[in-house]
DNA sequence: AATGAATGAGGTTTCATTCAT
DNA sequence: TATGAATGAAACCTCATTCAT
């Protein structure tokens, strides 16, 4: 999939004297290298070799290894937000909209393992590169808005429970889809199960969607003025 | 915190000629270094300097940087499983037992940020060190058992829904507690929120417990022979 | 001698930006270092310093200390076989051809003390590097052939004795010329004699040639159907 | 063979508090280590481990790695001279005495591969340790004497040729027996032959004895006032 | 726009040796 | 006599980066 994305080579000619193509080749090789090796494990030499360009060209275009990494990161993040298709679901009935939003997020995580790994890598590095980016943060502007919109409409309809924090909800949707992928290598070893087999993924998708919707559509007793409230409050002490 | 754990002879005396203490000092410094810098970013020099021992002593005791990393990893994992206190919750009423299990897991993740980071680091490295460990995997033997036991008892009581896969459940419990911590640096920047403030954490704990229990206690219509089944099945195509 | 061989651009200018020259300078410095210090005693740092190049360039060109050593070894061996000039002596009258072959071998050993030392070094290391070379062994293809040819022709002429094993002959020619050079440092100390003084060397050359030819031209009594055979056979028991 | 020489252990008890035994164990382990690994390749740690003593004891007894090496060297050399049994052959008929001397030397070299390797190692190091020894050189006092005695008696008898330099003769006897052993690893690879197979060794022994005796008993024409002298002199120019 | 050559700083690891008991 | 703990110097090698064209 990755290699297929490389243009040039069409004529078999090495993409010399074609700045666009060289840049693209570098970015593609860099993506693979950073994703598979991590930031500290990635080697500029390998990126140069894999992209078929001179090592110095990398510095010419991207300034430094970190600069190259940041551009890779920005491209990956930009892809994530595009695929979440917020606008498409805003207008749907709340339950269906939420179902699709959860499903979309799940599907995108499954489809782009690179994203999962780069997110982990970036957090290992305390997000210091992300914080130096000017292009990524704006992408997240509308995200919570969409969630909030769906939530409110669902609450107004009496379909969703009240008092749902949209950040918490986002964290849960993402966490349910993220963890089993990000930690698949340790988990599959410890639990003796292959998580990325197609059938398993389909099952997990159902489970995740169901869990989120169960939570949203469950109207707790106390909201109807009922009892049992003390049980839930009792754990605050922890 | 770290330095305080070292049983130095008396006051602030450097623990020379005390192999136990030297080993402990190295491990403590290594833990901090690996956790904060990652495996590739960690520097043996820094570990030696921070632990106050000669660099060679590290190789004498642990063989290599990787050997030291593995021992750090094993200790952290061993701590995780100890704190999950499976046995304590097995005998509780299913709902309460599950509530405590979820809470315990959440609390332990919050209490040991090292664990979160090392798990991420290890997955970035495809769990290749973990797979070389003989001590970690056995720790996970009873985990799914506990979950299964609670589930079955709850299902027998009619409190929990049927057809819950215990691995899926484990992944969800862990994912809900893990993601907001593991990815806190990118998320807090992108969402403008501090996730680890005490109040936020308490709120998230409630949310996570509530989500899991909502899922478990929600008896889907079809289990009562109802409709709406087609809606859930409709997303398989995605 | 060494420095003079470097084709530096003009006068004493450091041959930067000239990979051929850099490679040659490294090899020359490496040869001296390995020959004088042995494989384990050689220091890459010294080679870098002596050749005037950056240490890393050595790894860039030769991969490792062992790789550099192997290339030095290959070059030295290649020089040996070239100077043995097999073909030149094949057509000569057997006695004269053999005399020249012995002399050539002796002269080359005397002329290239490096070869003697590297052979010793390589044998101390059980020839493990040599066995990893693809270029050295082929050089030895024609060697025994030449010996065999001369031997047969001499035997046909009745000049040489029968039943001479060409490998034994090769070992003796080489051993007579090799040992007093390879072990000159212990021997000159123990026997109070300087073996490499020009006059001594000339004398030894005569002695070696004479010994080999004496052996070859001596027709043992038994070959003429005579007695004394039992004396020679008597030592088999040893 | 080596391990069998270690005393102690008779009672199964580790040889603590027995300085003689400890010293012997160290020397035995050191011999093996130096012989197989060379001087620079030898590891004090391995010697300590193999001899079962504390590393510090080595320094206590021998002062340094070099000191230990020197003692190993002295013991090996002392063994060589003992076995050459000069005196036994002095009284024999010249031809038989010489035959035995050559055979003894050959046999001893074959029997003590350690000696061969240590000689090579010591020469790689320019005999600098040997020159620091006070015990080895005296061992060589009588060596040339024996040769000279046999030679003169043989010459007086008319059995040996005149004008034989005893040092040259010694170098040749040793070289013929030494080279094929010292360089066996490179040679067996290059010539595709196993030199140390028992049958090969017996054949080479015959060859070596025969070559030396052929030389000694060959009375060149010029000694009888003959011609051909110019041929031999002609190679001086080389 | 692009390249091949070269570098300096620093990485992990090794090893002979000494310390303190 | 003997030991286990610890060390300092230096070894081989790596890697992001820059130079000169």
UniProtKB/TrEMBL annotation, chains A, B, C, D:
Residues 20-80 form the HTH tetR-type domain. Keywords: DNA-binding. It comes from the Bacteria. Pfam families: TetR_C_29, TetR_N. The keyword RNA-binding does not apply. Residues 43-62 bind DNA. One of its GO terms (molecular function) is DNA binding. PROSITE patterns: HTH_TETR_2 (PS50977). InterPro entries: Homeodomain-like_sf (IPR009057), HTH-type_TetR-like_transc_reg (IPR050109), HTH_TetR (IPR001647), NicS_C (IPR041474), Tet_transcr_reg_TetR-rel_C_sf (IPR036271). This is TetR/AcrR family transcriptional regulator. SUPFAM superfamilies: Homeodomain-like, Tetracyclin repressor-like, C-terminal domain. It comes from Phreatobacter stygius. Coiled coil: none annotated.
């Amino acid at each position: 999939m990755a290699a297929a994305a490389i243009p040039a080579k069409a004529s078999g000619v090495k993409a010399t004297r074609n700045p666009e193509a060289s840049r693209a080749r570098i970015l593609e090789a860099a993506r693979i290298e950073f994703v598979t090796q991590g930031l500290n494990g990635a080697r500029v030499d390998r990126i140069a070799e894999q992209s078929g360009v001179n090592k110095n060209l990398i510095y010419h275009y991207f300034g430094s290894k970190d600069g190259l990494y940041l551009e890779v990161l920005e491209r990956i993040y930009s892809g994530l937000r595009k695929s979440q298709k917020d606008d498409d679901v805003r207008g749907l009935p709340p339950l269906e909209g939420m179902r699709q939003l959860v499903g979309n997020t799940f599907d995108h995580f499954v489809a782009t393992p690179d994203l999962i790994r780069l997110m982990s890598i970036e957090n290992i590095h305390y997000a210091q590169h992300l914080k130096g980016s000017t292009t990524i943060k704006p992408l997240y502007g509308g995200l919570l808005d969409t969630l909030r919109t769906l939530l409110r409409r669902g609450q107004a309809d009496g379909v969703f429970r009240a008092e749902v924090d949209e950040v918490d909800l986002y964290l849960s949707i993402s966490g349910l889809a993220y963890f089993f992928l990000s930690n698949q290598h340790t988990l599959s070893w410890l639990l003796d199960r292959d998580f990325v087999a197609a059938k398993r993924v389909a099952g997990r998708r159902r489970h995740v969607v169901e869990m989120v919707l169960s939570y949203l559509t469950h109207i707790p007793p106390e909201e109807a003025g009922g009892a049992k409230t003390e049980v839930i409050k009792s754990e605050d002490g922890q």
